[in-house]
Amino acid sequence: MSPSATAPVDASEQAPTPPASGIDTFFKISERGSSISREIRGGLATFFAMAYIVVLNPIILGAGTDKFGHQLNNGQLVTATALIAGLTTLLMGIIGNVPIALAAGLGINAVVSLQLAPKMSWPDAMGMVVLAGLVLMVLVASGLRQRVMDAIPSGLRRAIAIGIGLFIALIGLVDSGFVSRNPDAAHTTVPLGLGVAGRLQGWPVLVFVAGLALTFILIVRKTRGAILIGIVTMTVVAIVINSLAQIPDAQWGLTIPSVPDKVVGSPDFGLVGDVSLFGGFHEVGLLTDCLFVFTVLLSGFFDAMGTIIGVGEEAGLTDERGQLPGMGRILMMDGVAVAGGGFGSASANTCFVESTAGVGEGARTGLANVVTGGLFLLALVFTPLAEVVPSQAATPALVVVGFLIMAANVKEIDWGDVTIAIPAFLTMISMPFTYSITNGIGLGVLSFLLLRLATRRTREIPWLMAAVGLCFLVYFLLDPIEQALGVS
């Protein structure tokens, strides 16, 4: 959407005026044809479009169990999610001066919860995220980030995003109870089934189905804040149903849908700083740990770059080469957000495409981010409200986000080139089917290299891509290699 397609503004706001304050001068508000009122309005719109992450991120991270059987506390996760989102969004606004808000990335949090944590402790897993952020900052400082991005074919990058979207959607279906795992005792070749014994049972699943329908309707009607509206509405519905039907707490999944004693509470910062940078190397070994860091890095690497350019273009801030002013600072803040998310145990933070909601309201500078970040920090004292949301009211958002990710990327893949189409297909299906984002990326990279070699298109293989493929080859063959070397 071009800048001209954004929401109408007041006549008094259409003509830039000379800087009238230090804030105007610092953020270049008038220079970019905006106004303080438009920036405030844009910051509010962005916050309400992405505030769902304060509820959704704790559900995804809270669903995971580490190697020692530990789960993260929901209240502490809500605090960590809001805190890091607020701080990183403020930093991007003040240092990067762009209206691009950040929060815990969907997809990356699934990697941390379902892949890293089961192999190590939670502090070790969050340490991997911090290391990925540090690597990202080094790549930005050295100028290698663009080169690494260019090494992965566009079609494969799109497939990685789609695979993550399908993975997220499957998590939503399973966590809601709409889909459940068939026990091995059933002796069936179908690993998953509808509801319980092939039937949808109970009020909580009905809440999920109704929430999914409502959210999709709001999406179709282009309602701003559709995901957040869906979560809030179905939470109220769940509370009413629970009060009338007295449903056992266990059926609701993560939380009990009852009104908290108070809406304001003291934030619990217990997870902030609870990280171990190198503990994971002891648990899983150097190679596997490096691949984990690489997976976290890759999961948010390209999505963040695309979001930055996309939001910048919509705001009319890019030049003829598609570059934003101060791109180096913007990319560095993205790396800081990844590391900061790990340090806060909120998973890697990344740029949110929902920032386009604020741009649509007229935001053009980092002042909008100051508003959005401030609201996230204000949300810290309202954590009891977030804890009241049952999983069935929030998981429709996972399915919807999965759809949105797929819709935005599938048409960009060149399905006519089988050396891209086949790796893309394997990448997309492997992530949900193997319940592993790492496996999906690995199979996609290796199949791409194999098909390019088979078609004698070796000159089209960047050396960085070949190096990544070699790492994944060792990863998949790690067990026979260890047996051959006599390493346990």
TrEMBL record:
Membrane topology field: Multi-pass membrane protein
Transmembrane spans: 44-65, 77-105, 125-144, 156-180, 200-220, 227-245, 291-312, 366-386, 422-449, 461-478
One protein family per Pfam: Xan_ur_permease
Any one GO molecular-function label of the UniProt entry: purine nucleobase transmembrane transporter activity
GO cellular component: endomembrane system; plasma membrane
Keywords, alphabetical: Membrane, Transmembrane, Transmembrane helix, Transport
InterPro entries referenced in this protein's UniProt entry, alphabetically: Azg-like, NCS2
Annotated region (Disordered), positions in chain: 1-22
Localization per record: Endomembrane system
Top-level lineage group: Bacteria
Record carries keyword Transmembrane: yes
Family: Belongs to the nucleobase:cation symporter-2 (NCS2) (TC 2.A.40) family. Azg-like subfamily.
The protein's name in its UniProt record: MFS transporter
